[in-house]
Amino acid sequence: MMHNGKIASLWSMVILILSFLPFEVLPQNSTSQNFIFKQCAEHVLFFRMEPKPFQDYVGDEFKLHVDEGKAVVSLFLQDCSQYWVDGQDLGTNQHAHVLVRVTAESETNAIVGAEITLPQMTWFSISAASTNPLDQEARQASGTSPLNIEDIKLGENDSTKNGRVIFSEDMDYSWVISNQKADTPISQMIGSNQILGFHHKIYVRDGSGNLIVKQIEALGLLETGPNLAQLLVNGSTDGSRLIPEGPSNALALTFDPVWARVTAGH
């Protein structure tokens, strides 16, 4: 990736930071900060679902962010040829994450290197999957159990981009991203080949029912979107039977991510 000249100068900064960072995973009952650098293809899809099953899943302490009467669900996918955490090369990694958006107060500080920093979004984790054994160990050490994943394919045809995440032979998501831009407020803020900054807060419930909070700051190059897309769900791929089988309309963006900083704690 990293083919765009606008972000070439960021390489030396990232490599310098990595050279000073020790590797650690998050032990239980503690707080940890990790710096992640990666070379990936990244697709992010947003789609709407009936809210009640998700509200039941997140619990009474959270209120769903509702859009046109529906819960907002995100499918986050990365196919990484290089994945560094705190200076340690973890090799390749494929990662899938399903989240539902919840309401929260938002404070957004500008991300260094970003042309535009988007407002913070807050999410509750539904399920996550990774192919990298060390990444899986880190998640398990923090009290979360990643799903199995067989493969992620992120590609493009002559006129569209497409992808598929395979959890098993009878469980997968597939999607096609059109060239048609979506008419949304964020479409007026951002455009292709812009370097964007992101703030996300993600709540994860561990195996004991305790909440882990992850604060994420990230920098990435927007390649496509937000564009209209079509998502097809085959089988109960989210691990919680919240997302029904069949097609759904979606919005999609594709990125060339640069780095992320994750602060997590119970």
Number of helices: 3
Question: For the residues shown, what is the average pLDDT?
Answer: 82
> Stretches where pLDDT falls below 50 for ≥5 residues?
7-29
The number of distinct β-strands equals 13
| Proportion in helices | under 10%
Largest β sheet strand count, sense and barrel closure = 7 strands, mixed, barrel
> What are the secondary-structure elements, in order, as H or E?
HEHEEEEEEHEEEEEE
Shape: globular
Total number of distinct structural domains: 1
Label the structural class.
mainly beta
The first-level CATH class name? Mainly Beta
- Determine the CATH topology: Acetoacetate decarboxylase-like
Give the name of the CATH architecture.
Beta Barrel
How big a fraction of the residues is strand? over 45%
Strand order in the largest sheet = 1-3-5-7-11-12-13
Radius of gyration: 18 Å
Terminal-residue CA separation:
35 Å
Describe the fold and architecture.
- With 266 residues, this protein is mainly beta.
- 10% of the residues lie in helices and 53% in strands.
- The protein has one domain (5-265): Acetoacetate decarboxylase-like.
- The protein is built from 3 helices and 13 strands, in the order H-E-H-E-E-E-E-E-E-H-E-E-E-E-E-E.
- The protein is globular.
- Residues 7-29 have low confidence and may be disordered.
